[in-house]
Amino acid sequence: MIVTRQALTVRKSVLQDAAQLMELDALVWDEHNAPAPVLWTSTEQYLLSSPPGNQLIALDHTNLCGYIGFKSPTPLHSNNHVLEIHIAVHPAYQKQGVGTSLMDSMIKYARSQGIRKLRLRVLSSNLSALAFYKKCGFVEEGRLQSEFYISGQFVDDILMRYML
C-alpha cells in the first residue's frame, strides 16, 4: 500500500527503516506524551516490538516524517477485528498534515484488512494529541484515573476508539 500526497509518501515499513524509526522514537516520546521515554537498546529489541510491516511510515522524499504503528491487542482470534495503534510525527513535520495523512492511510488499510475497530491510549495531559484524535473521529471509551505519576503529577490514561 503506497499513498502519495504532494511530496509525502505513505507506505508500510521495511527492515531498512528500523534505524530511522528508532531515532524518531527517541526524539518524540518523552514525559509529555508517554509514561516514559522510548529508548531502544538494540535493533533486535526494536524489531521484536515493531516488526517490519507493522507501521505505516510517511516520507518526504527520503526523510522520515512520522509513522503509525499497529498490532493486534491480543493473540485471541476473537480479537482479530481490532488494531491497537500509536502515532509519532517528527517535530519538524508537525502541524503540516502528516498525522492526518497517516491516520487516513491507517483507516483505509484497516478497512482493507477487515478491521472493525481502531483503539489507542493517550495521556490526559497530552492535550494536542487528544484534540487531534477527536478531530480524526476517535471517542473516549474509558479512562484509567491517576494511572501514571509523571513530573510530579498524576495523569489519567485515556482509552479511545474509532469504529470502522
How would the blueprint of this fold be written?
Elements: E1 2-5, E2 8-12, H1 18-28, H2 43-49, E3 55-60, E4 63-71, E5 82-89, H3 98-112, E6 117-123, H4 127-135, E7 139-150, E8 153-163
Parallel strand pairs: 5-6
Antiparallel strand pairs: 1-2, 2-3, 3-4, 4-5, 6-8, 7-8
Structure commentary:
The protein is an alpha+beta fold. Helices cover 26% and strands 38% of the residues. It is built from four helices and eight strands; from the N terminus they run ββααβββαβαββ. The chain has an eight-stranded mixed beta sheet with strand order 1-2-3-4-5-6-8-7, sandwiched between helices. The radius of gyration is 15 Å and the shape is globular. The chain starts with a strand and ends with a strand.
Give the quaternary arrangement of the chains: single chain
The share of residues in helices is: 25-40%
- Total strand segments: 8
CA(first)-CA(last) distance: 19 Å
Helix count from the secondary structure assignment: 4
How large a portion of the residues is in β-strands, by DSSP E? 35-45%
**Radius of gyration from the alpha-carbon trace, in angstroms:** 15 Å
Which residues sit in consecutive blocks of at least 5 with pLDDT less than 50? none
Largest sheet: 8 strands, mixed
- Please write the string of helix (H) and strand (E) elements: EEHHEEEHEHEE
> Overall 3D geometry?
globular
Structural classification: alpha+beta
Overall average residue pLDDT: 93
Strand order, sheet with most strands:
1-2-3-4-5-6-8-7
